[in-house]
Write a structure and sequence with these properties.
Number of domains: 3
Distance between the termini: 19 Å
Helix content: 25-40%
Number of helices: 21
CATH superfamily of the largest domain: P-loop containing nucleotide triphosphate hydrolases
Largest sheet: 12 strands, mixed
Shape: globular
Length: 567
């Protein structure tokens, strides 16, 4: 089980015998002429060819993996996604896993290497965690091209678009946690260096360009979405777009290869589409629409993962990704750990040793968070199953208590899994439960209609999903609502930017908080992506490194070239 002696993730990955990606593709039903090889073990796929070839085939069943509210001790959502996909293969199902590309921010920040762990991993581990196929670099380049063109247009004597500099919302990006770039001043040093103004940086994976990559359905759609990006307003209040400034075409050119999904494999040689990587606490937190659509044509079951807790990535998956993708989930898997639930019960950070002692009282109290997340997913009319990533310190009584409570809360099933230590074999019962859930009737529905006002959408999410008593709008947010409504953007879905550490906007409020109101500080436009994103409380769109970042442990053996310490 999880917590037993298991080699490090990177040691397991480096010891794995990978199959050529051509074999993985053939197993998934992808033809050799639909592959663009990136070495022996990864490839991009010709999604247009696949979709055209299989247009008359029925879609498979879509399973979304999400979690309780995250804690520092981890819930193992990506591990669950990998393990569940591996287990479905073991019970004879044709399955494809669709997950996001890791950002260098978390890789070198707190988490270290991403995309699973133990014997539930995607490989090649070093490639997918570092530069992979260059998709995130392309996102950064396209984003920053527009930023450079905006500042060039703002130079004295140019500004043919009559840009109001105070309304420029487009920020530069970098794929790294770098807190000193949150607020910057550009254009210092004289006329030739541009017009001085305040701006800042976001992390690349939280950018609108990344969201566009994840939501575009084809190259034409990508080009149109790039053109719709609103970066500022002119002095008459008219929105200005990337099309207006002449950047959209070049941005699309930079993104044309990034639009093609990446194919890799699990440790057990199952196919994985790893594509796009929007953060779920800032952006919408799900892999690309394109990869999901082709996976649904190729496989009987598709496992995907939504970032952070069900109140973030999973809500956004249902209300944003499914809206634009034209598909819906057949079942939701919520994962948890005993120690994370205990921490929610305590309501504060606890030492690991405290959480590894049986404590049924705190565990039952912490199950309130699980209850709320199950409620949240049932709002969409989809069957819910629960998995418990079991560690060696978890007692049978604790596991049974979570199972009993999950069923009381409305879950179809609740199973412990041990995929970190056992791979697919550690989730056989869970895989069967998910298949049974997929076969049950569902009544998928969005949380709110397109026609609802901006405030109605925000307040629906805040009260129904977070459990807030109401919403308070700061003056800047009120002004933005007026502007966006007049511009016709009020019909777009809402992508809330809030802390992932609480159901509320306050990271210190654990478990299932009550009696709070959600403050909306600002609302930013992502018109190309197709949503508005309110900024809740003190939420930042550029993370910072921890006091001891994971990068400290990463090095390379200069004799062999072997990477060490990635995780």
């Amino acid at each position: 089980m999880s917590g037993t002696t298991v080699p490090s993730d990177i040691d397991i990955a480096q010891a794995a015998e990978m199959k050529p990606i051509t074999e993985i593709a053939a197993d998934a039903g992808i033809r050799e002429d639909e592959l663009e090889l990136y070495g022996k073990y990864k490839a991009k796929v010709d999604y247009m060819s696949i979709l055209e070839r299989l247009k008359d085939e029925p879609d498979g069943k879509l399973i979304d993996v999400t979690a309780i509210t995250p804690t520092p001790w981890g819930e193992g959502k990506t591990v669950t996604s990998l393990g569940l996909a591996q287990a479905l293969r073991k019970i004879g199902k044709k399955v494809i896993l669709c997950i996001r590309e890791p950002s260098l921010g978390p890789v070198f920040g707190i988490k270290g290497g991403a995309a699973g762990g133990g014997y539930a991993q995607a490989i090649p581990m070093e490639d997918l965690n570092l530069h992979f196929t260059g998709d995130i670099h392309a996102v950064s380049a396209a984003n920053n091209l527009l930023a450079a063109m905006i500042d060039t247009e703002l130079m004295e004597g140019r500004n043919k678009l009559n840009i109001n500099p105070l309304t420029v919302s487009w920020r530069r990006v970098i794929d790294m946690n770098d807190r000193v770039l949150r607020q910057t001043v550009v254009g210092l040093g004289g006329y030739l260096n541009g017009t001085p103004r305040e701006t800042g940086f976001d992390i690349s994976v939280a950018s609108e360009v990344m969201a566009i990559l994840a939501l575009a359905t084809d190259l034409k759609d990508l080009r149109e979405r790039m053109g719709r990006i609103v970066f500022a307003y002119d002095r008459d209040g008219k929105p200005l777009t990337a099309e207006d400034i002449g950047a959209a075409g070049a941005m699309t050119v930079l993104m044309k290869d990034a639009l093609k999904p990446n194919l890799i494999q699990t440790l057990e040689h199952g196919p994985v589409f790893m594509h796009a990587g929007p953060f779920a606490n800032i952006a919408h937190g799900n892999n690309s629409v394109i990869s999901t659509k082709i996976a649904l044509k190729l496989a009987d079951y598709v496992v995907t993962e939504s970032g952070f807790g069900a109140d973030l990535g999973a809500e956004k998956f249902m209300d944003i990704t499914c809206r634009y993708g034209g598909f819906s989930a057949s079942a939701v898997n919520i994962t948890a750990t005993i120690r994370a639930l205990k921490m929610h019960g305590f309501g504060r950070m606890q030492e690991r040793s405290e959480l590894e002692v049986e404590n049924l009282e705190m565990l039952e109290k912490g199950c309130a968070n699980l209850a709320k997340q199950i409620e949240n997913m049932k709002l969409f009319g989809i069957p819910v199953v629960v998995t418990v990533n079991r560690f060696a310190s978890d007692t049978d009584a604790e596991v049974e208590l979570v199972r009993k409570k999950a069923l009381e809360f409305g879950a179809e099933a609740c199973n412990p899994i041990t995929v970190h230590a056992q791979g697919g074999n550690g989730a056989i019962e869970a895989a069967n439960a998910v298949v049974e859930a997929c076969d049950r009737p569902s009544n998928f529905q969005f949380l709110y209609p397109d026609e609802a006002s901006i405030k109605e959408k925000i307040e629906t999410i805040a009260t129904k999903v977070y459990g807030a008593d109401g919403v308070d709008y700061m003056p800047e947010a009120e002004e933005k609502i007026k502007i966006f409504t007049e511009a016709g953007y009020d019909k777009l879905p809402i992508c809330m930017a809030k802390t992932h550490l609480s159901l509320s906007h306050d990271p210190n409020l654990k478990n299932r908080p009550t009696g709070f109101r959600v403050p909306i500080r600002d609302i930013r436009p992502s018109i190309g992506a197709g949503f508005l994103y309110p900024i809740l409380g003190a939420m930042s769109t550029m993370p910072g490194l921890s006091a001891r970042p994971a990068a400290v442990d990463v090095d390379i053996d200069v004799e062999t070239g072997r990477i060490i310490g990635l995780f």
